[in-house]
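User: What would this chain look like folded?
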Amino acid sequence: MTGDDPLEESESGEPLTDGGAAGADDVALDPWGSSSVSDYRKLFEEFGIEEFDEVLEEVPNPHYLMRRGVIFGHRDYRPVARALQNDEPAAVLSGFMPTGDPHIGHKLVFDEIIWHQQQGADAYALIADLEANSARGMSWDEIDEHARDYLLSLLALGFDLEEGTLYRQSENRELQDLAFELGAEANFSELQAIYGFDGETDVSHMQSVVTQMADILYPQLEEPKPTVIPVGPDQDPHVRLARDLAERMRFFKVSEAYASFELDPAERDLVADFYERLDPAEFDDDTLRCVHVAEALEETPLSDLAVDADTLSSVLTKLNEAGMEPIRPRTRFFDRRATDEAFDALIDAIDGEKRVYENHVDAFEIDLAEAEELAREVEVDTGGYGFQPPSSIYHRFMTGLTGGKMSSSIPASHISLLDDPQDGYDKVKAATTGGRETAEEQREKGGKADECPVYELYAYLLSGDDDEFAKRVYDECVGGERLCGDCKEQAAQLMREFLEEHQEKRDEVEELLEDVDIELESPRRR
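Assistant: Here's the prediction, encoded as structure tokens.
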């Protein structure tokens, strides 16, 4: 979940003006390794990440990273967008593992946090020092040095201290208590399947995962609210696990049901279909009953049903065992981990017709959305968290200035926010481009902006909020009007100006850092 190293290679596909079009082969998501995403489309297919373009129109005042497709995907971002539109509570959180200097890849995440804060969301930024120590073996002295630099750059870019929250994992007791509770809902087999942990994985590394789950849910400790986690796609495993744990921590599971027994989703869809199409009169009855649906299913060829043989067998068994029980739509509140007090309070809170069973309550006069709100309200009132599943947005990785992967361990491949402005200028001037072999060929065929690390700098950073400028650079490149030498000179000058301005602002906010409610020196230093 950290913004540890969002500097990865992006290869090009069809022309796009975002400087990071999709490539064509593999997808590997490893929150601690050198993740490679060379085909962003596969993230939609294999991991269920949704395209951000589909929700863009619902976002108020979208950030330029959203408009240009640099933020390319999301998980369940609509609740956050609705909250921002309606001035309702929402939150944004992301973390930074202080393993080196903050760089232009981190700036993407800084900007995403600050933009959400400016739109009205509660903003949280954290230093993932426990993760840095356990997963990367960083000393506490090193962690403290880098943490200070991250915080200064965040403040210099516009993070509002008075309205935001900063913390470090090792010093947040509320976070650690939450992590302890979440740990009871996760097990080694699950972490092994998600992260590839084995018998050689140390326990502190596993604990750091649960701590990150607590980070992701931390903004909802005071009240449940839509929360977005801006990250690179390599951090998606953390988001998926956090969403699962948020659900497991809930007192009640709310679902649709058709009888007193439980059906899995495929079984429920099948029963719902037959409920809609069957007429009770055909069975000499005025009520549709379980045996009637079972009878109709048995007479229907499997090839005409949208289920497999095992699902059909299971649902037939349940229906026949229920016998003459009526099939009737209802909303179910299933007791997942509720206290006796919460279960009794839920029963009292449900208006209208209801039936109470040992582990669930069926309500007949409330729809699913209302039921979910009621369940959350009862949970919070009786001491539970009522977590909403956290949302996430994903930005593209940046191509290295030298043409391969942008890596913190290769200084020439990336630009640190602490680089001397002249060094930043020189790195851009020396960068690989998407230009042709000769100026003549460039004028004839146009440049390959979608494969150009320098154009990415325009799209991701140097154009700022000026979409027209970013598009003009792109159009002039692919149209053959813009040659690489002049283009790099302009980009290099803009980079030097950005670094000069940013570092001046870092100096200006230095004194603010002394008043931040966060430990700048860890008591664990040794």
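The radius of gyration is 27 Å. If you want, I can go into more detail on any region.
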